[in-house]
Amino acid sequence: MFSSLFFCRLYDLVQCHRSSQFCWCVNPETGTPLQGMSKYNGKPNCSGKDARYGREIKGCVGKKKAKFFQRLFASLISEWIITMGEGDNEGAISNKDRAARWKFAQLDKNNNNRLERREWKPYREELKQLNKLRKCGRNFMRFCDKDTDRRITLDEWLDCTLNVDASMPVAKPKLMLQRKNPFLDILKPED
């Protein structure tokens, strides 16, 4: 009875990283970041229903989602490098951040700092072509449109690309060490 009345917050609902200017919502008991609940250059609203449960791309979870974001950023960064060249690295801004901002500017044809449906729809078709990740690509732009106004602002774009990617668990690569076969010294070929 007492435990149900007592709620201990071990972590603040909003966590911020000063140098990157990002803030995000966390689970107050575990400190785990909530996917899709971060904001660039401001504090997100961590009190609503979305903050408690996080947001997901419909039909795109787990390994599928991780693979989708790997492919998304591989294509964004390679397209950005091909178009702009690597150039010099501008301080603490990562290639992912610069590529995401560049792609937003490329998609924003009328330069109103919003991606309207007619601007993002061709890109959605491109994302749907990712092998075995059709649902992820099909629903990605809707996932980015947090306020469901059919327009994606730069904050929404950065939130659904950079922050969702950053909050996903990173798979540890399996190291395949070259080892000498132990039987080479024991076994002798027959003559």
TrEMBL record:
GO terms for molecular function: calcium ion binding; extracellular matrix binding; heparin binding. It comes from Parascaris univalens. This is Thyroglobulin type-1 domain-containing protein. The keyword Calcium applies. The keyword Calcium applies. InterPro entries: Dev_reg/Prot_inhib (IPR051950), EF-hand-dom_pair (IPR011992), EF_Hand_1_Ca_BS (IPR018247), SPARC/Testican_Ca-bd-dom (IPR019577), Thyroglobulin_1 (IPR000716), Thyroglobulin_1_sf (IPR036857). The lineage of its organism: Eukaryota, Metazoa, Ecdysozoa, Nematoda, Chromadorea. Keywords: Calcium, Disulfide bond, Glycoprotein, Repeat, Secreted. Disulfide bonds join C16-C23. It comes from the Eukaryota. GO terms for cellular component: basement membrane; extracellular space. One of its GO terms (biological process) is extracellular matrix organization. Residues 11-46 form the Thyroglobulin type-1 domain. Coiled coil: none annotated. It is found in: Secreted.
